[in-house]
Amino acid sequence: MQVIDNCEELFDFAQESRAQGLKIGFVPTMGALHRGHLSLVLAAKQKCDLVVVSVFVNPLQFNNPLDFERYPRDLAHDLSLLENSGVALVFSPSEDEMHPKPIQIGFRVEGISGGLEGKFRPGHFDGVANVVGKLFNCIGPAKAFFGEKDYQQVKVINRLVREFHFPIEIFVVPTLREVDGLAMSSRNLLLTPRARKAAAGIYAAFSFGRGLAIQNEPSDEVLESMTNILIDRAGGEGAQCKVDYVAHVRGESLEEISLFEDGSRFFIAASYDGVRLIDNIGVFDK
Ligand code: AMP
């Protein structure tokens, strides 16, 4: 496995691989890797000739400097996981390499970024589009792999690919969860033991909401019950819980809707003892 930190080498590696007729699968990450990330790598290995993974904590997508500072980082551990997963190349650039200063040009995401995370993290999806656009440009992958856990991000990436004509196929990989249903996330490393227990309330709320949706209960009452589950569970564990949103949206457009329908999804964003987690699930998914 090669590990490089500059764009020129990345560009050369990718160009040579493509010249040999190899299809590159690309998995962008912010490191502090877990099995969820590795499921993306596995999907990429299955569908491509070689896999490139980027490990870069992208400052442009953090609206909160403290969140950026304390985001977990462990490159040595990441590299050992990726080496064992049969990755061909890891790209781990510095901030200056990825975003030469001063930054004067950038993507601006509108519409699809208006609700959910976009509302609570202004500029977040601009930052995502900027870094993913640059990485797509340097690597020229045939396919790129993203997690359903960041569902709104997938929508943004699909739009980016379509509007800027990147010749890249986007694959979406299901969310990998812990035994109690908590979605795997790098941020889980930051949870206190009580917050970790309380955070299982997110999946409990989804399960409860799905049960009520099947009985066709009114969506606003369902969302209220789900919110109560988050708060009660956190209270029971003695953890602080701040709920940013519990939402029911149309899967395609992400607009909030009141009636359940095919493709409906629940979205939750909540902080536990100050660690902000997001998750989503298809209301009628099997
Ligand atoms: P991150 O390092 O958090 O930016 O995530 C990198 C990629 O891994 C994104 O496409 C995420 O959606 C995906 N990902 C994160 N957590 C999970 C998970 N639990 N299951 C599957 N994919 C995930």
Quick overview:
With 286 residues, this protein is α/β, with parallel strands linked by helices.
What are the defining features of this structure?
single chain, 286 residues, alpha/beta, three-stranded antiparallel beta sheet, 9 strands, 42% helix, 19% strand, globular, binds adenosine monophosphate
Task: Walk me through what this model shows.
This protein is α/β, with parallel strands linked by helices. The protein is 42% helix and 19% strand. It is built from eleven helices and nine strands. Strands 1-4-3-2-5-6 form a six-stranded parallel β-sheet, with helices on both faces. A three-stranded antiparallel β-sheet has the order 7-8-9. The longest helix has 19 residues, at 219-237. The chain starts with a strand and ends with a strand. The mean pLDDT is 97.
| Overall mean pLDDT | 97
Backbone shape? globular
In the sheet with the most strands, the strands line up as 1-4-3-2-5-6
Helix content: 40-55%
| Helix and strand composition category | alpha/beta
Number of strands: 9
| H-E order | EHEHEHHEHHHEHEHHHEEE
N-to-C terminal Cα separation, in Å?
Answer: 38 Å
Strand percentage: 15-25%
Number of helices: 11
Small ligands present: adenosine monophosphate
Taking pLDDT < 50 over at least 5 consecutive residues as the criterion, the unreliable ranges are none
Radius of gyration, whole Å:
19 Å
Please outline the major beta sheet: 6 strands, parallel
